[in-house]
């Protein structure tokens, strides 16, 4: 049966990394006759330029119908002056996540042994690292109301946001995390700021109340400031981490660097039925956009996650993982993961190397 994949390259390096991910997907689609039908649409700044809207109606309709979505990255300085709700980030990406109820964001930070030297931490601190960050993606302070910038009586402006989580929102993301922990090392660390914020006091209470349903999972709780410190001190103590939207955003970028580069961190954003959007954790990287420098591996590994989680295609997903490993074995590196003696390639060169490794399988 045909499956429809919506491809949203977005802005900046989004278009460059997506071209390589699509090469990989096309290759596997042909090799295994997967019957995937790829369609491309505009999102973010590119969509604003073409249609005036960060999430054009056409893109939204295609997204609702798609079996899975692949996203590059959105945003850039060109659109930073627009009102918040119209920007690529809020008007495009966050709206799409929210409308499709993609609340479960899985961000696996895995250190490929070949990249131990590229991590900013000592090899012994990171070797064997395999963490899964489960980030709540459609609630918390990103979406809480009221929000805005208002004028105070004394004439100065005040910015404000609201950090909210309901019990049901906490329960559904915690369930994702407990179940992920069951399939992995059976250790779950819930990250909050329950010493200060009521919303996360409730978070801690609800997560704790679910522990009895997962007796095999060892549940712990940690304040977010300590969690940030522990991630760089001794990251291998973690198996699965679960946290809210903003803390998850920040901790996953920190975790990314443990793996050598943010260019190595894929993600899956899933709804309650495992329908999802797949995207690298990094942004549109305006500083290197258009220079054939971006690492496409996070996006290519996001393709593997899509095949596995939304399409149930384990073999081609395994092929991608093995091809990435083989490319790294060969010492092929983009600039962000380069170390001495390796072969430096650009975005397209890295995509070609992955295809060559797939062909050689
Ligand atoms: P960024 O992730 O785009 O870049 C941070 C740094 O990491 C930059 O130095 C960049 O060159 C580097 N980097 C990122 N991805 C890389 C890759 N694949 N290969 C090599 N180096 C890479 O974050 P930023 O600079 O804070 O944000 C830039 C824009 O991207 C902003 O408009 C932001 O809102 C947007 N953004 C979008 C997403 C998304 O679409 N999912 C995620 C994060 C940021
Ligand atoms: C991410 C990004 C987004 C987020 C931005 C671009 C809205 O940083 O996917 O990590 O904060 O969720
Ligand atoms: Mn982020």
From TrEMBL:
The keyword Glycoprotein does not apply. It catalyses: (2R,3S)-3-isopropylmalate + NAD(+) = 4-methyl-2-oxopentanoate + CO2 + NADH. PANTHER family: 3-ISOPROPYLMALATE DEHYDROGENASE. It holds the Pfam family Iso_dh. The keyword NAD applies. One of its GO terms (biological process) is L-leucine biosynthetic process. Belongs to the isocitrate and isopropylmalate dehydrogenases family. LeuB type 1 subfamily. Residues 4-354 form the Isopropylmalate dehydrogenase-like domain. Keywords: Amino-acid biosynthesis, Branched-chain amino acid biosynthesis, Cytoplasm, Leucine biosynthesis, Magnesium, Manganese, Metal-binding, NAD, Oxidoreductase. Substrate binds at residues 97, 107, 135, 225. This is 3-isopropylmalate dehydrogenase. It comes from Litorivivens lipolytica. Mg(2+) binds at residues 225, 249, 253. Binds 1 Mg(2+) or Mn(2+) ion per subunit. InterPro entries: IsoCit/isopropylmalate_DH_CS (IPR019818), IsoPropMal-DH-like_dom (IPR024084), Isopropylmalate_DH (IPR004429). The lineage of its organism: Bacteria, Pseudomonadati, Pseudomonadota, Gammaproteobacteria, Litorivivens. GO terms for cellular component: cytosol. Its cofactor is Mn(2+); Mg(2+). It is found in: Cytoplasm. One of its GO terms (molecular function) is magnesium ion binding. HAMAP family: LeuB_type1 (MF_01033). NAD(+) binds at residues 76-89, 283-295. Catalyzes the oxidation of 3-carboxy-2-hydroxy-4-methylpentanoate (3-isopropylmalate) to 3-carboxy-4-methyl-2-oxopentanoate. The product decarboxylates to 4-methyl-2 oxopentanoate. Pathway: Amino-acid biosynthesis; L-leucine biosynthesis; L-leucine from 3-methyl-2-oxobutanoate: step 3/4. Homodimer. Its EC number is 1.1.1.85.
């Amino acid at each position: 049966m045909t499956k429809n994949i919506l491809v949203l390259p977005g802005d900046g390096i989004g278009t460059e990394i997506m071209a390589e991910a699509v090469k990989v997907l096309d290759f596997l689609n042909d090799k295994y006759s997967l019957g995937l039908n790829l369609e491309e649409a505009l999102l973010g700044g590119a969509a604003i330029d073409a249609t005036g809207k960060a999430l054009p109606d056409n893109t939204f309709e295609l997204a609702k119908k798609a079996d899975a979505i692949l996203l590059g990255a959105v945003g850039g300085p060109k659109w930073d002056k627009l009102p918040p709700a119209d920007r690529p980030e809020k008007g495009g990406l966050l709206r799409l996540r929210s409308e499709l109820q993609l609340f479960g964001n899985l961000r696996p930070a895995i250190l490929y042994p070949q990249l131990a030297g590229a991590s900013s931490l000592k090899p012994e601190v990171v070797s064997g690292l395999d963490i899964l960050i489960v980030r709540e993606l459609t609630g918390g302070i990103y979406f809480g109301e009221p929000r805005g910038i208002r004028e105070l009586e004394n004439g100065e402006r005040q910015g404000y946001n609201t950090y909210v989580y309901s019990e049901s929102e906490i329960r559904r993301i915690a369930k994702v995390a407990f179940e992920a922990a069951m399939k992995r090392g059976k250790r779950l660390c819930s990250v909050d700021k329950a010493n200060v914020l009521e919303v996360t006091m409730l978070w801690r209470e609800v997560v704790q109340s679910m522990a009895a349903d997962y007796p095999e999972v060892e549940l712990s709780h940690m304040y977010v400031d300590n969690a940030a410190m522990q991630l760089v001190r001794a990251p291998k103590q973690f198996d699965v981490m679960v946290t809210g939207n903003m803390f998850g955003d920040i901790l996953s970028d920190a975790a990314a660097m443990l793996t050598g580069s943010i260019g190595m961190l894929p993600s899956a954003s899933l709804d309650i039925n495992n329908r999802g959007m797949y995207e690298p954790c990094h942004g549109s990287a305006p500083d290197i956009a258009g220079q054939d420098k971006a690492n496409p591996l996070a996006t290519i590994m996001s393709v593997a996650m899509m095949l596995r989680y939304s399409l149930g295609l384990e073999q081609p997903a395994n092929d991608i993982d093995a091809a990435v490993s083989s490319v790294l074995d060969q010492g092929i590196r983009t600039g962000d993961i380069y170390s001495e003696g390796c072969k430096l390639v650009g975005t397209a060169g890295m995509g070609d190397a992955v295809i060559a490794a797939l062909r050689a399988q």
